[in-house]
Design goal:
- It is found in: Cytoplasm.
- Its cofactor is [4Fe-4S] cluster.
- This is Radical SAM core domain-containing protein.
- With 373 residues, this protein is α/β, with parallel strands linked by helices.
- Helix content is 30%, strand content 21%.
- The protein has helices at residues 9-19, 25-35, 49-58, 145-156, 176-186, 206-215, 230-236, 245-259, 277-287, 313-325, and strands spanning 4-5, 59-60, 65-71, 77-83, 89-98, 103-104, 107-108, 113-118, 122-124, 139-142, 161-166, 198-202, 220-224, 263-269, 292-298, 330-333.
- The strands form 4 sheets. Strands 3-4-5-8-11-12-13-14-15-16 form a 10-stranded mixed beta sheet, covered by helices on one side.
- Helix 4 (145-156) packs parallel to helix 5 (176-186).
- It is elongated and about 70 Å long.
- The protein starts with a strand and ends in a 40-residue tail after the last strand.
- The model is unreliable at 341-348 and 352-373 (pLDDT under 50).
């Protein structure tokens, strides 16, 4: 029987309860493991003797290992290829930003350099989005909550992580219980990442959106909308057939009413598919009753697998101008990072690109920094 990750919160808590061990020791164990990756259980000080016995019998300090680290020529992006206990691989991406860039309410921003980690929630994905490399893998399996948290543990040894975005491999809301359990660990001691610094991206799993705020409040929700009408969504996102746009928008309206937070709308720009002026007007009308930030994403090529080309800069600029000027919708254009190591949006698929060296590039600003503007 395979040993469980010590970061599988629900499992270790249940085992400790069964053995009559106080759960207050669990964060202490996590902290020691983070600081001492090669430790033995006996190295952890001041635990009850029964805890050592239980840890040896049922848990591993890490069920995954970093197989490869790829550095982008942009100087600010690092991709981790992580091997899981079952032999499968997932990818995580560290993106370094400067939160002092730009202005907030007309004044210079507070803050400075920090890192965001893009986390995977599944091996592969069953959503089948036609513009996304991960979808070409098909669905392999869900990650446990411990395997999700271990991505943060590995990344934290390379960079201080302040923000988490569930925008890696997989549809997070299709692995709901592990997602919620992992977020609860990330926001608790010793990680203590603010839920306001965590973003969960979804294609629009309506039943999960309906309960997300109650289970893990104060998160950022990002919705991969990618088209303003149902028929285009279904063409490029086959899973959208199960989540009609009207019902999705009703769910988002209810989510926003409960959370009182802006929703991020992700919109990939596909030339001749969803980037015409009429689409901008349709999107503006669809979203005008919401408090949103629309993030226009240049399409990232996925080699011979791609049936699309990215929109021209002129089209993207015109699309953004319509949303901003006519519908007064906050709209940004995502600065892509890590394309040369297949670490940009839509490019995560398990492969082994050539290792790259870091060059000196300026830090970037991050969409999470405009959350309350």
């Amino acid at each position: 029987m395979a040993l469980k990750s010590v970061f599988d919160s629900s499992v270790i808590r249940a085992e400790f309860d069964k053995a009559g061990i106080n759960n207050r020791f669990i964060p202490l164990i996590w902290k020691y493991v983070i600081q001492n990756p090669d430790c033995n259980w006996e190295d952890i000080p001041s635990l009850p003797s029964s805890a050592y016995t239980l840890l040896r019998a049922k848990f591993k300090a890490s069920t995954s290992v970093v197989h490869s680290v790829f550095q982008s020529n942009d100087g600010v992006t690092t991709k981790l290829l992580i091997k899981l206990q079952n032999g499968a691989f997932v990818e995580s991406v560290i993106m370094r930003y400067d939160s002092s860039l730009g202005k907030l309410n007309g004044k210079p921003r507070p803050g400075g350099p920090r890192s965001t980690l893009c986390v995977s929630s599944q091996v592969g994905c069953k959503m089948g989005c036609t513009f996304c490399a991960t979808g070409t893998m098909g669905f392999k399996n869900n990650l446990s909550s411990g395997e999700i948290v271990e991505q943060l543990v590995h990344a934290s040894r390379l960079s201080t992580i302040r923000n988490i975005v569930f925008m890696g491999m997989g549809e997070p809301l299709n692995n709901y219980s592990s997602l919620v359990d992992a977020i609860r660990v990330m926001t608790a001691s010793p990680f203590q990442i603010s839920p306001r610094k965590i973003t969960v991206s979804t294609v629009g799993i309506i039943h999960a959106i309906n309960k997300l705020h109650n289970d893990v409040p104060n998160l950022n929700l990002a919705v991969s909308l990618h088209a303003p009408v149902q028929d285009i969504r279904c063409q490029i996102m086959p899973a959208a057939r199960a989540f009609p746009l009207e019902k999705l928008m009703n769910a988002l309206q209810e989510y926003q009413k409960k959370s009182q937070q802006k929703i991020f709308i992700e919109y990939i720009m596909l030339d001749g598919v969803n980037d015409e002026e009429q689409h901008a007007h349709q999107l503006g009308k669809l979203l005008e009753a919401f408090q949103v930030v629309v993030n226009l994403i240049p399409f990232n090529p996925i080699g011979s697998l791609s049936q699309f080309i990215t929109s021209t800069n002129q089209k993207v600029t015109r699309f953004q101008k319509i949303l901003r000027d006519i519908y007064d919708i906050r709209t940004t254009v995502r600065k892509e990072m890590g394309q040369d190591i297949s670490g940009a949006c839509g490019q995560l698929v398990v492969n082994l690109p050539d290792k790259r060296s870091i060059s000196n590039a300026a830090p970037l600003t991050d969409i999470e920094d405009i959350r309350r503007q």
